[in-house]
Write the structure tokens for this entry.
Amino acid sequence: MRKPVIVIAMGDYNGIGPEIALKASLAPSVRRACRPVLVGSTDVFEYYARRSRLKVTLRECDDLG
């Protein structure tokens, strides 16, 4: 059975949104329940991942297919 895709928006890039979105998408409980997809600037997510010392691989895509 395929997991549902859940979109997590970045929110305000000057706030805590990108960091919270990244951490939520990496949480084991979230990953067990769904396929999280981050929506927002890859550059901003990469910045916050480095700043938070999160090991994450981001990739850009035009569709979820």
